[in-house]
Amino acid sequence: MKAGRQTACTIIPKLDDPDSSGAERVVIRDAVFDELTLANWAAKIFGEEQVSFTYSDWDLLDTI
Fold first, then answer.
1. In this structure, what is the dihedral angle of CA atoms 16, 36, 33, 62, given to the nearest 10 degrees?
2. Which secondary-structure segment (H or E) carries 23?
3. Could you give the CA distance from residue 31 to residue 58 in angstroms, rounded to a whole number?
């Protein structure tokens, strides 16, 4: 990214609810972030951020 090249990555989020009957995973391929915050200097803020991205393909890995 620093060299000016677009970086595509693979994202595998997991939803694991202890009150549910199992876990669920999906693979998101060729994800490219539309924006990215490198640092947030605000004090006393929980580290949560929403970031938009585009992707080319997805598949279910595990289903409940």
1. -10
2. strand 23-33
3. 10
Q: Report how far residue 23's alpha carbon sits from residue 14's, in angstroms, rounded to the nearest whole number.
A: 7
**What are the phi and psi torsion angles at 18 (to 5°)?**
-65, -20
* pTM of the shown model: 0.68
Count the neighbouring beta carbons within 10 Å of the beta carbon of residue 22.
Answer: 10
Handedness of CA 56, 54, 32, 16 (dihedral sign): negative
pLDDT tens readout for residues 7-55? 899 999 998 888 877 789 999 999 998 887 777 787 777 777 788 999 9
Residue 18: DSSP 8-state? T
Q: Reduced to 3 states, what is the DSSP secondary structure of residue 51?
A: coil
